[in-house]
C-alpha cells in the first residue's frame, strides 16, 4: 500500500465513522442516503453480487440496486467519491453538532470543494441556520459532477455493461436548483431528458459501439449541467440582491450578507476549483468559460469594502455584460457539444476496429 493510498484509506475510515454518528439538521432524502450507502459498500466490499435471494424485502432490494449501480468503480475511486458525497451532504443538510466538511479529513487527490463553517457565535451552533445548511444544493453537487466527468472510457463502458436499464445513473437524477415541476427546473429537466435518452440508447444497444460514441457527449452533458447550476444560482442571487436593495432586508426576509458574502463567493470558488489541473477536460473548459465571474466578484469585494455598493456594482456589471453570458457562452458551449459528438465518432471507430 502506497502512502497516498494509506492516507486515502485513513480519511475514508474517519469520514465513515463520523457519518455513523452524524445528526443532520434536516432529513436527507432517501436517494442521498442510498448514494452514500452504495459508495461505502463498493469502497469496502467491491462490486455487488450478480443476484439477490428472492426473499429480501423492498428496502434491502433498494440498497442492492444502489450498490449494483456503482459496479465498475474501483474501491479507491469509491473512497474518493464517498468523501466528496459525504462532504456535499454535510453542506446541504447541516449538522446539529456543528461539525461540517470544513473539519473533515481530506486527501490531496480529491477535488477541492468550497469550504463552509457554521455560525458558532456565543459558542452555539444554529444547525439549519448555519452557512453549511444554507449552501445551495446545486453548488454542493458540483464537486461530485466534476468527479463523474473524469470517468475514463474503460470505466464508463464497464459501468454501463453492469448497469440494468432501470438503474441508469441519469435516470436517478433530479433538478438540483429548483423543485421538480417548477418553472425554474425547466433548464435542468431538458438536460436530464436528453441525458436519459443518450443513456437509454447506450444501455439498450448491443456491444460498446453506441456507448463509446456517447461517452464524450455524456461527460459534456455533465459539464453543461454544472454550467446551468452556476447560471441559475447567480441569477437567483442577483434577483435577491436587487430585491434587498429596493425593498430592504426586513421586507424581503433575505440577507444581503448571505447572498453577497456567502452564495456569490461560493459560485466563484466552485468555478476556480473547476479549472484546477487535476480536473477533467470538460470541467476545465466549462470553468474557463465562466472564469470572468469570479474575477468580477473578487475585484469588487477586494476594492470596495461597502457591501451595498460592491453588490450593486456587481449586478450592474453582470447586466452590462449580458451579451457574454447569453450569447458568447452558449455559442462556446455548443462548440464543445459538437466537438464531443465528433470525438465520439472517433471513439466509435476505435471500438469498431477493436483497437
TrEMBL record:
Keyword ATP-binding in record: no
Molecular function via GO: fatty-acyl-CoA binding
Sequence ranges of Low complexity compositional bias: 110-133
Keywords, comma-separated and alphabetical: Membrane, Transmembrane, Transmembrane helix
Polar residues: bias regions: 98-109
UniProt keyword Transmembrane, yes or no: yes
Superkingdom assignment: Eukaryota
InterPro entries (UniProt xref): Acyl-CoA-binding_protein
Residues in ACB domain copies: 8-95
Region (Disordered): 98-133
Bilayer-spanning residue ranges: 222-248, 285-302, 322-350
Sequence similarity: Belongs to the ACBP family.
PANTHER family the record matches: ACYL-COA BINDING PROTEIN 1, ISOFORM A, ACYL-COA-BINDING PROTEIN, ACBP
Protein's UniProt name: Acyl CoA binding domain containing protein
Organism of provenance: Nitzschia inconspicua
Amino acid at each position: 500500500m502506497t502512502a497516498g493510498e494509506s492516507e486515502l484509506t485513513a480519511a475514508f475510515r474517519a469520514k465513515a465513522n463520523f457519518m455513523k454518528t452524524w445528526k443532520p439538521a434536516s432529513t436527507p432524502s432517501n436517494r442521498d442516503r442510498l448514494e452514500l450507502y452504495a459508495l461505502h459498500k463498493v469502497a469496502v466490499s467491491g462490486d455487488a453480487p450478480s443476484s439477490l435471494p428472492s426473499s429480501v424485502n423492498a428496502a434491502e432490494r433498494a440498497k442492492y440496486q444502489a450498490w449494483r449501480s456503482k459496479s465498475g468503480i474501483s474501491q479507491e475511486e469509491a473512497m474518493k467519491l464517498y468523501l466528496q458525497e459525504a462532504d456535499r451532504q454535510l453542506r446541504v443538510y447541516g449538522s446539529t453538532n456543528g461539525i461540517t466538511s470544513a473539519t473533515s479529513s481530506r486527501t490531496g487527490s480529491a477535488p477541492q470543494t468550497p469550504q463552509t463553517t457554521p455560525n458558532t457565535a456565543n459558542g452555539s451552533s444554529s444547525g439549519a441556520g448555519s452557512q453549511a445548511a444554507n449552501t445551495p444544493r446545486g453548488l454542493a453537487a458540483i464537486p461530485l459532477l466534476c468527479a463523474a466527468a473524469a470517468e475514463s472510457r474503460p470505466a464508463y463502458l464497464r459501468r454501463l455493461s453492469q448497469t440494468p436499464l432501470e438503474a441508469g445513473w441519469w435516470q436517478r437524477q433530479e433538478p438540483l436548483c429548483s423543485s421538480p415541476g417548477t418553472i425554474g427546473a425547466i433548464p435542468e429537466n431538458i438536460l436530464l431528458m436528453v441525458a436519459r435518452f443518450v443513456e437509454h440508447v447506450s444501455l439498450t444497444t448491443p456491444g460498446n459501439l453506441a456507448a463509446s460514441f456517447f461517452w464524450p457527449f455524456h461527460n459534456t452533458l455533465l459539464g453543461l449541467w454544472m454550467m446551468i447550476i452556476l447560471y441559475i444560482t447567480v441569477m437567483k442571487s442577483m434577483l435577491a440582491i436587487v430585491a434587498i436593495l429596493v425593498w430592504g432586508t426586513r421586507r424581503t426576509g433575505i440577507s444581503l450578507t448571505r447572498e453577497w458574502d456567502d452564495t456569490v463567493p461560493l459560485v466563484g470558488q466552485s468555478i476556480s476549483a473547476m479549472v484546477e489541473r487535476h480536473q477533467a477536460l470538460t470541467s476545465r473548459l466549462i470553468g474557463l468559460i465562466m472564469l470572468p465571474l469570479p474575477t468580477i466578484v473578487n475585484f469588487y469585494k477586494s476594492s470596495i469594502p461597502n457591501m451595498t455598493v460592491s453588490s450593486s456594482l456587481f449586478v450592474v456589471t453582470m447586466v452590462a455584460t449580458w451579451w457574454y453570458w447569453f450569447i458568447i457562452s452558449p455559442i462556446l458551449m455548443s462548440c464543445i457539444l459538437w466537438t464531443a459528438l465528433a470525438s465520439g465518432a472517433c471513439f466509435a471507430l476505435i471500438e469498431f476496429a477493436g483497437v
